[in-house]
Amino acid sequence: MFRYRRQKLLIRTGGAVFGLTVLFMLIIWILPAGGDKAEKTVRKFYSYEQAGNFSESWEMFHPLMQKRFTKGHYIQDRAHVFLNHFGVETFDFTLGDAEKITNWKMTKDDEPLKLVYKVPVTIIYKGKYGNFSIKQDVFVAEEEGEWKILWDYKK
After folding, report:
1. CATH code for position 145
2. What Å distances lie between residue 82 and 9, 74, 75, 90, 154, CA to CA?
């Protein structure tokens, strides 16, 4: 009788361990890693920019970025420079792989952000002055549960 209880306990314990292992693996598989979230955030940001929806892209900026220029100024400037000056109606973009960085600063005077992801972006414009590309590293940090866009202003 004691042996029967011990076998039953081992079966239950083994089943519980197996179930928890499967659950843990599913959570890891389903929830994207930080680098994936960063790339998704950058893709969404540039999709807004591509559509000329600069209001929504500005909303995706980290508070440090939003301090650099007002929403109205950003919308006007972005449309003016890229659409009017370059004669571009839209653009394509490609993203590189996200790279994890610790203690990154947007400017040399800012407090360091503990964790950011650097995502290389190439924007391909086709305009009245020909085709050209701009390459820029875009940085993404989590702020109050949301992933936010930053640009590098260090000199």
Report:
1. 3.10.450.100
2. 69, 12, 11, 9, 23
Neighbouring residues of 127: CB distance < 8 A, sequence distance ≥ 6? 86, 87, 88
Pair 23, 41 in one domain: no
Same domain assignment for residues 1 and 68: no
What distances in angstroms separate CA 61 from CA 64, 68, 78, 140, 145, one per listed residue?
8, 10, 14, 9, 14
For the entire predicted model, the pTM comes to 0.77
Q: Residue 25 belongs to what domain range? A: 1-31
Same structural domain for residues 6 and 53? no
The pLDDT tens digits for 52-81 are: 899 999 999 999 999 999 999 999 998 888
Phi, psi of 91 (to 5 degrees): -155, 165
Nearest to 45 by CA among 17, 68, 53: 53
Total tally of structural domains belonging to the chain:
2
User: What CA–CA distances, in Å, run from 58 to 2, 26, 61, 62?
Assistant: 68, 35, 5, 9
